Amino acid sequence: MNAAEQLCAALLTRCKTLQNVKEVHAYACKTGLDIDPFVAGKLILHCCVLISDALEYARRLFRHTPNPDVFMYNALIRGLAESDSPQSSILTYVEMRRKSTASPDSFSFAFVLKAAANSRDLGAGFQLHSQALTFGLDAHLFVGTTMISTYAECGRVDCATKVFDEMFEPNVVAWNAMLTAFLRCGDVKDAERMFRLMPCKNLTSWNVMLAGCMKSGELELARKLFVDMPVKDDVSWSSMIVGFAHNGCFDEAFGFFRELQRVGIRPNEVSLTGVLSACAQAGAFEFGKILHAYIQKSGLLWIVTVNNALLDTYSKCGNVAMARLVFDGMPGKKSIVTWTSMMAGLAMQGYGKEAIQLFDEMERSGIRPDGITFILLLYACSHAGLTEEGCRYFFKMKEIYGIEPAIEHYGCLVDLYGRAGQLQDACEFITKMPVSPNAIIWRTLLGACSMHGHVQLAKQVKERLSELDPDNSSDHVLLSNTYAVAGKWKDVAAVRRSMSHQRLKKTPGWSMVEVDKIVYSFFAGQKQNKITEEAYEKLEEIMLKLAIEGGYVPEVGNVLHDVEEEEKEDALFKHSEKLAVAFGMSRWCKGRIIRIVKNLRICRDCHVVMKLISKIYGLEIVVRDRSRFHSFKGGSCSCRDYW
Ligand code: ZN
Ligand code: ZN
After folding, report:
1. Distance between Cα 98 and ligand 2 center (Å)
2. Is position 400 within any domain?
3. What are the pLDDT digits (tens) for 383-423?
């Protein structure tokens, strides 16, 4: 290497942007070094690997090099393999084989195999495998390991196993690749067998196993592995938190997060978004606030995903004001995820006008709405009774943004007409839909019938539903509700009888309430324990007070307005949301809002009870049920009794 070459190489190491590289390139051209293979190779590699958005420039440099050598080919193959078009990486490899005298080495194969993996191109994988055989590189550790990953990515764990078995003394990286291959295909059993056989494991092996178990929902196995791990890093902790959160085990997710802090490991982006998603799902507002303060204090508020998770948590906990605070304070440009999370918060609370305002703001900021944005917007309009606006946005979606409405959008519009009582329009709309209506569309219409007591239409719709989705208990409930609203009690009883006759499956109901940053779960008719005992005791006291001071009578005999399952008339008292609210009240301290999350829709009776409690006890209760938020205050609910 001469002095000029050395200077070029040294200058390149300092290049951080494409502009920098262009300057070095200009210098190389001036000194005639641009066709020097060493310098040209370095330039191409730098553009391919170290600088983003410089791939096109690298390609141009490559084209201008007279006889690119294997080093340059490898750089380009590697860069393209990780790009949006991994197929062009494979094409570059093919070009090298056809046009060049350079023969591929182990790096070429490892990089181009990565491209085959990234484009899930099994055919290319097979061909590259046989070419590697020709060059005697198939048993090469580096090549073999990548080949294992490629086959796994293409769903061929059998081929991956063959490659592994033929490897001469596989190292820990190869073993880890094989572990990943099994887990990638959801084969936890074989992964575990491999794991036990491994001659030596590193931290990655443990972490791969952990993450794989959590993805397949093998939570107990993951927990056992975690205990056995000789060393744990932040990746291991994050896996536990995210895994439990994704599998709906919020208590465990919170527990692991607390433990992580206790042992002095700094939470990272993954563990924070994981624990925040647990908060969002469990409606754990207080805990979310603590996390918010922590994130602020530790200077992590610049991370976009953390901000989005925080915003989502506040939205799902029903606190639009806090969500807005996070939204407004977000650093940098807001992503579509940010806008949609904020809109979801407004929509779920029935803030239709505000959702529309936000949408306008989003348009002005230059972010293009997508299909999900419009679902939320239409949902917001329908829940706020903004029928005209909803229709306008439905057409705007297609006309202005060219988004073809999906079945969900049609569903929103049926709901929009239905809620407003325009059942004729809803029916007409359904018949004009270019896609054939599914059960959800008909169920939406049935819901509207039950809301407005349209018996005739409800019967017709129910017949359609019986053909499309015969075993759905909520349809029977909706039909019986329609009869109830219309005062036809005989028909109500008949529907109930046929339901119990058909033994329709019912989803068990549960509710959660957060008290002192701990989330407690309650199930309908749950067995007694210390917590439920406390809840039942308090509930009895509350119901007595409601009866005396509020004139409350349980809606048992006549109105079967139980929107969902769970209900046995005599078990009204045991509804999980009642237990949750009672427990929340027994531990209540001044100024707090009681927040409940319920997996089904809240029933009419519980809704009445919550309203009365909010009035008689002067409390604020927020219930997030399956379809929306209910904010109870001073005897009324934000849903205006429509849900
Ligand atoms: Zn209930
Ligand atoms: Zn309500």
Report:
1. 70
2. no
3. 888 999 999 999 999 999 999 999 999 999 999 999 889 99
Distance 133 CA to ligand 2 centre (A): 68
CA of 559 relative to ligand 1 center, distance in Å: 13
Calculate ∠ Cα 367-368-371, nearest 5°. Answer: 135
Residue with tokens 């209900």: 567
Report whether 595 contacts 318 (CB < 8 A): yes
Same domain, 618 and 514: yes
The CA-atom distances, in angstroms, between 437 and each of 406, 440, 445, 564 are 11, 8, 11, 23
CA of 600 to the centre of ligand 1 (A): 9
When mean pLDDT is compared across 235-244, 482-491, 556-565, the lowest value belongs to: 556-565
Q: Per the domain annotation, does 428 fall within a domain?
A: no
Residue type, 578: K
Among 64, 93, 117, which residue terminates a domain?
64
Q: Could you tell me if residue 31 is inside a domain?
A: yes
**Global pTM?**
0.75
The answer to whether residues 313 and 332 touch, using CB atoms and an 8 Å cutoff, is no
For residue 576, give its domain range: 510-637
Nearest-ligand number for the alpha carbon of 631: 2
CB 310 within 8 A of CB 346: no
Q: 509 burial class (0-12, 13-18, 19+ CB within 10 angstroms)? A: buried
46 is a domain residue: yes
Ligand at minimal distance from the CA of 555 is 1
**Domain end residue (candidates: 147, 170, 193):** 170
